Amino acid sequence: MMLTGDPTPEVVEQAAALGVCAFLPKDGSLAGLVDTIRHARVGSFSVHPSLMVQLSTQRQTRITEQPSASLTRRELEVLALMAEGTEVRVNAQILGISENTCRGYVKSILAKLDAHSQLQAVVNATKLGLLEVQERV
């Protein structure tokens, strides 16, 4: 178990990688600590709800603080095609570029939008106003 006063996503990731099974706030209750000790299991990872709120808030702040102009014109084109749900192979054909080049743009987009998947990148881009939400009838 790990107690912390300043949780960051990086610290949580490091704790999980080290085999920590519970991540708790230093100012948490004794009852919560005892309950966590009773239910701690090897291979599981428990994060106290108050820390989850802090981590979520920090993550949203990082996403919204990123400048939206950091995507190039071509990255925006690839992003728009990603939002349509087409595959990288098809996107490359549409844009007249190689699949490897298109994959490079996707990786760059994921990094700039702090996303781990193309879907998450589309969601983050929509929140930032980089993509227009189109309602389906």
Automatic annotation (TrEMBL):
<dbReference type="InterPro" id="IPR001789">
    <property type="entry name" value="Sig_transdc_resp-reg_receiver"/>
</dbReference>
<feature type="domain" description="Response regulatory">
    <location>
        <begin position="1"/>
        <end position="41"/>
    </location>
</feature>
<protein>
    <submittedName>
        <fullName>Response regulator transcription factor</fullName>
    </submittedName>
</protein>
<feature type="domain" description="HTH luxR-type">
    <location>
        <begin position="64"/>
        <end position="129"/>
    </location>
</feature>
<dbReference type="InterPro" id="IPR039420">
    <property type="entry name" value="WalR-like"/>
</dbReference>
<dbReference type="InterPro" id="IPR000792">
    <property type="entry name" value="Tscrpt_reg_LuxR_C"/>
</dbReference>
<dbReference type="InterPro" id="IPR016032">
    <property type="entry name" value="Sig_transdc_resp-reg_C-effctor"/>
</dbReference>
<keyword id="KW-0238">DNA-binding</keyword>
<dbReference type="Pfam" id="PF00196">
    <property type="entry name" value="GerE"/>
</dbReference>
